[in-house]
Amino acid sequence: MKSNPLSEDYELIRKINEGDATAFRQLVYKHKDVSLSLAQSILKDAVIAEDVLQDVFIKVYRKLNTFKFKASFSTWLYRIVVNTSYNELKKRKQNISVDAIDDTFNITSEKKDLMEEQDQRKYINLALQKLRPDEALLLRLFYLCELSIKEIEVITSFKPSKIKVDLHRGRENIGFHLKQLLGKDLKQLL
């Protein structure tokens, strides 16, 4: 019988609120990969995203007693990840230059073994790095996290129309960047 991830999270939260540090480690482990991916979508820097994620989980630990169980824990957590990441972006006043990113990813001869899942992730992540932070974030929330437009609205505070437009643009732009990276080998990737 398949376990319910919501009830697993709620049980872990109950244990954490009772002082069980092991339960918090389990909760972090369960959600860290997706949370890091969301932070990287916004910040475009793995090291900064890891630092932000540490701050996020400290905030989560301190504020977990305020979690009301009205939404899923992941929705609440992703909202904190998104807000903390955007705050860090503002603090650093980063202007992400697509030209600078293009110079970083000059891929020519490494196009042979594209069917491996590791290579698929690599090229998709390279293309995601070239997208605007909002587009990359929304693509990850919608496709990776499999969240609905309504759930994404709660996490990001974006209007549904912005979410739909940015998802559309994001899909077009990621296709464009994948074509630039892979050329005719794109069909092998997909």
Compile the SSE list and pairings.
Layout: H1 5-17, H2 21-43, H3 46-63, H4 73-92, H5 98-104, H6 117-130, H7 133-144, H8 149-156, H9 160-182, H10 186-189
Helix pairs in contact: 1-2, 2-3, 2-4, 2-7, 3-4, 4-8, 6-9, 7-9
Describe the structure.
It is a single chain. 75% of the residues lie in helices and 0% in strands. By secondary structure, the protein is mostly helical. It has two domains: 1-94, Orthogonal Bundle (Rna Polymerase Sigma Factor, Chain: A); 96-190, Orthogonal Bundle (Arc Repressor Mutant, subunit A), CATH 1.10.10. The radius of gyration is 18 Å and the shape is elongated. Residues 94-115 have low confidence and may be disordered.
Note the main attributes of this structure.
single chain, 190 residues, mainly alpha, Rna Polymerase Sigma Factor, Chain: A, Arc Repressor Mutant, subunit A, 2 domains, 75% helix, 0% strand, elongated
Largest sheet: none
CATH architecture of the largest domain: Orthogonal Bundle
What is the name of the CATH superfamily of the largest domain? Answer: Winged helix-like DNA-binding domain superfamily/Winged helix DNA-binding domain
Please estimate the helix content.
over 70%
What is the helix/strand order?
HHHHHHHHHH
**Helix/strand class:** mainly alpha
C-alpha Rg, in Å?
A: 18 Å
* CATH level 1 name of the largest domain: Mainly Alpha
Number of DSSP strands? 0
| Total number of distinct structural domains | 2
Query: Globular, elongated, flat, extended or rod-shaped: what is the shape?
Result: elongated
Beta content comes to under 5%
Terminal Cα span: 33 Å
Count, helices: 10
